[in-house]
TrEMBL record:
Gene3D superfamilies: Alkaline Phosphatase, subunit A. This is CDP-alcohol phosphatidyltransferase. The keyword Membrane applies. Residues 1-30, 37-70, 100-112 have a biased composition (Low complexity). Coiled coil: none annotated. The keyword Acyltransferase does not apply. SUPFAM superfamilies: Alkaline phosphatase-like. Keywords: Membrane, Transmembrane, Transmembrane helix. Residues 1-70, 100-128 are annotated as: Disordered. The chain crosses the membrane at residues 151-170, 182-199, 206-224, 259-281, 302-324.
Length: 689
């Protein structure tokens, strides 16, 4: 049915305002309109007065449905005589229906206050569909239950304001979720209110909806910052970190099952969509409320702006937090700078990659003082300084380090230890591995990709370049193709499926460290047909979060294919029992480090030779739930050998004797280790770039 765009054709007011009574949907309902006009003239605000006026109007007319039926009969549509006014308005066809609609719209327009124009326009758009019917029923319910309608209206309004203000004031740290963070006055809300008041109806609605979606996205970013800070000790990177969400899903699948991971992923997507929709609806509702009384809304906006400026100038605070807030604007500026810095960093780091102190060093001038040695570089997952110094974890870990140092000494091995500051924290172990072995500070995924695609000499590749070593990698955490083997110069890499393990997974870890080390011995280190010494890179994974269940040491001769671990895995704790409990996480983490250290040192006692040289270090600290909110990025590193000449070469490093570094032992950036190691063992610098 054609609808006039110049004069509203629907008399139904906007459903967001409970304080206005519904106008009758046809020109025949004169008594209802007169009563509504009287109510609006007396007091257009209170919902109860409007509801009572509408009720009084309905009584003289009999029943609202009967009045609507009379209108239908007058229009010639006897089939809908028992229908309600909204249904009749939809079903009346032709010019007669249009005339009725226009007459009713004109009557409503004469009676309504200027603030009612928007509601009439909205009703016009819906006059040709079933939405009018539903709205009419809602209005009838409101007229019959004014008190309940008022409760609903205020509840929805308060929730709308709460969502918008909460999103504007939400911090991006879990520790910041305190009441005083939400008792502030956001300047962004004041600016947004002023903008909406200046816009016509349709642009205002669009801008409000888009603003709500933006607030939803901002909320998601704040939550991502919270989680990344908790797990990785840094904010979420808008450019680089989206790929890590897939890694997070894989971690959940490995730790708690694929069904849980899929359910969590679907739930999060739906939650994000729902949040954006709710924020948009909340912003639109607030904008409509302001438009209904622009004079009052403008006055309130000016008062709020004055208060914000005053509080900002005098530095007024509540519970230690400034009242005048621009939290959301700061976040957007910070994210914009982060994006710009990330893009700029790519070019800067490219120059660093091309420069290599040992890039042009001839093969015969690389590590000449280690010729003939079996060299092993071993990373223990999440082995951080906290394991040695935290009061909950340290007693057990320190006892293990002391006992292992003594056991190695009996076998003829001696150790020196220090500290390295890792390029990563809580996760992204590959960044710690690449930083140690490349001599470059690789603290994000973009840098990692740049290094892996470069010719920059890795420490492990230096051994291969000499031609004097066979090179191998033992990577039980790798479960797919691993092209990085080329950069690291590894002739052969054993992944999770190539070591013959038939036992159970221990949460994320595909196999116990003891089995991985025994497989290394069987497949490579114990071979008697080798004509060159071996350079190995080994990644031990049993200390990977969530630290449940944890393997236990078994007799080395009983390892077999790993089936011996079935009972141990079944009897161990479940990840769900540990993952959300800070104290339990600390305790189990400490036990996992004890297990990894014990497995490695027992392997060395059992299979090490006079020519074995071991470098063992952590790749990063555990997550904040274990290491603490203000933990350092330091990890322990030890060099172990039987040949005293090997340790004499690093005497100038002033490292601590034994496997436990002293609290005041030297601390280097992790990226410094490659050059110091190559220099200590006789390599001659020949720079490139």
């Amino acid at each position: 049915m054609p609808v006039s765009t110049s004069t509203p054709s629907s008399p139904l007011p906007d459903s967001t305002d409970p304080e206005e009574a519904p106008a009758a949907p046809t020109a025949q309902a004169e008594p209802a309109e007169e009563a509504a006009r009287t109510a609006n003239t007396a007091d257009p605000g209170p919902a109860e007065a409007t509801g009572e006026a509408a009720g009084d109007a309905v009584e003289p007319a009999g029943d609202a449905d009967a009045a609507a039926g009379d209108a239908d009969v007058a229009a010639g549509d006897a089939d809908v005589a028992a229908g309600d006014a909204g249904e009749a308005a939809v079903e009346i066809a032709g010019d007669a229906a249009e005339a009725v609609g226009e007459a009713a719209a004109e009557t409503a327009g004469d009676a309504a206050e200027p603030a009612e124009d928007d509601a009439a326009e909205g009703a016009t758009d819906a006059a040709g569909g079933a939405g009018v019917v539903a709205e009419a029923r809602w209005w009838r319910w409101r007229s019959r239950h004014p008190r309940a309608a008022r409760v609903v209206w205020w509840t929805v309004t308060v929730l709308a304001f709460g969502l918008v203000l909460g999103a504007l004031l939400l911090p991006n740290r879990i520790a910041g979720l305190e009441v005083n963070r939400f008792t502030r006055l956001p300047g962004e809300a004041i600016i947004g209110a002023a903008l909406l008041l200046a816009l016509p109806r349709r642009p205002r609605t669009v801008v409000a909806a888009l603003g709500g979606v933006l607030l939803g996205a901002l909320t998601v970013l704040n939550v991502l910052d919270m989680e990344f800070t908790e797990y990785l000790g840094r904010d979420f990177d808008l450019v680089l970190d989206w790929g890590l969400l897939d890694d997070a899903q894989s971690y959940v699948a490995d730790s708690m099952g694929r069904a849980t991971a899929v359910g969590a992923a679907v739930g999060l997507v739906l939650l994000v969509v729902l949040l954006s929709a709710l924020m948009a609806l909340a912003a639109v509702r607030i904008s409509d409320l302001m438009a209904r009384d622009t004079r009052r809304a403008t006055r309130a906006t000016l008062i709020a702006a004055t208060a914000w400026v005053t509080c900002s100038v005098v530095g007024l605070q509540i519970a230690g937090m400034p009242v005048a807030s621009h939290r959301s604007a700061d976040t957007l500026v910070k994210k914009a700078r982060q994006v710009r810095q990330t893009i700029k960093d790519e070019a800067t780091f490219g120059k660093e990659v091309r420069h290599d102190t040992f890039g042009a060093t001839p093969a015969d001038q690389l590590v000449p003082d280690l010729r003939g040695k079996d060299m092993i570089f071993t990373f223990i997952e999440s082995y951080g300084r906290s394991a040695i110094e935290d009061p909950v974890m340290a007693p057990g870990v320190d006892k293990t380090l002391g006992a292992s140092t003594q056991a190695l000494a009996k076998a003829g091995f001696h150790a020196k230890s220090g500290w390295l500051t890792s390029a990563t924290y809580g996760g992204s172990s590959w960044l710690g591995h690449s930083t140690t072995l490349s001599g470059l500070w690789v603290d994000n995924q973009q840098r990692y990709r740049s290094v892996m695609a470069s010719d920059h000499l890795s420490l492990t590749k230096a051994f291969r370049k000499t031609g004097a070593w066979d090179t191998v990698g033992v990577m039980p955490g790798i479960q797919k193709g691993w092209p990085e083997a080329k950069y690291y110069g590894l002739d052969k890499v054993y992944n999770a499926f190539e070591m013959g393990y038939q036992g159970p997974k221990f949460s994320w870890s595909t196999m116990p460290d003891q089995y991985a080390l025994e497989a290394f011995q069987r497949l490579e280190h114990g071979r008697t047909d080798r004509d060159k010494p071996l350079m190995s890179e080994i990644i031990l994974t049993s200390s990977h979060q969530p630290w449940a269940p944890i393997p236990k040491m078994v007799d080395w001769d009983s390892l077999g294919d790993g089936s011996v671990f079935e009972g141990i895995e079944k009897d161990g704790k479940k990840a769900s029992d540990v993952i959300a409990d800070g104290t339990a996480s600390k305790e189990e983490y400490g036990k996992s480090i004890q297990y990894s250290v014990t497995a490695l040192t027992q392997w060395l006692e059992r299979y090490g030779t006079d020519d074995t040289v071991l470098v063992v270090l952590g790749d990063h600290q555990p997550i904040a739930r274990v290491s603490g909110d203000n933990a350092s990025r330091d990890v322990p590193i030890s060099l172990v050998a039987k040949d005293p000449k090997v340790l004499d070469k690093i005497a100038g490093w002033n490292w601590t004797d034994g496997l436990k570094p002293a609290h005041n032992a030297p601390v280097w950036k992790m990226s410094a280790f490659r050059d110091k190691f190559l220099t200590a063992y006789g390599s001659t610098p020949h720079p490139t770039g």
